[in-house]
Amino acid sequence: MIKICFLTSCAQKSGMNRRKRQYSIRKILTAIAICVGLISLLFIDRTPIQKGKTEAQVSIPVLNKSESRALRRYDNNYHLKLAQAKGLKKPLVSKTEYKTNAEEFSQHYQLDKITDNEYYEIPHLSYSLPYLQTPAVDFLELLGEEFCDQLEELEIRKYRFSVTSILRTLEDQKSLRKRNVNATSNKSSHYYGRTFDISQTRFFERGNSKPVYSYRLRNILLRVLIELQDKGKCYVLLERQTKCIHITVR
User: Fold this and answer.
1) Could you give the CA distance from residue 93 to residue 171 in angstroms, rounded to a whole number?
2) Domain boundaries, the chain
3) What would the pLDDT profile of 180-219 be if each residue is shown by its tens digit?
4) By CB count within 10 A, which of 69, 71, 189, 211 is most buried?
């Protein structure tokens, strides 16, 4: 009798241990499933789906002779004289003040910092600082709005343009001279906070960090700039060697 009770007790304990092991395994498997689910969420493509056509699905006419002339009507001398007349009183020597105290730098020179937004992106700037005078910042916003309006009119998805060079110091210009033949030796409209460059062909579909290189979008943007130039809001110069659009705000 005692032997039977002992065996029964052992069997019960064995069953309990087995259930405990099964329960522990289920907990571990559940934890693993939760972890896998959380990790998979990190890799889900969260790029918003835009309505409309991609830039490749729309036919955009090339620039005609009149438009091409308009983009070279005002050479660098015009840009420089305008920037000197309306921009900072003199060029900044280096980035030392900016690196010491960016907020104080901005206030002292009455410059506004520009950052990525829905209209344009600012890449890593090797030879300039992301600062402009207020009228130039306002113009950038206007350009972005007008560009997006044109895209909407053509039933194209929203794209952002890329601002590649902004406020330069004398040291920036000297360094740039070593790799850019277009950079002048001692005079640049980029010194004065009224001038910036835009990449001719690099754009970003809104919500997507992968660049799109497109002459179709470039031609749309250039036509917007020609119209704004005709309205007396800016000077535009289409640079050939650097593949950028040089703009000074009036």
Assistant:
1) 6
2) 1-44, 55-249
3) 555 555 689 999 999 999 999 999 999 899 999 999 999 9
4) 189
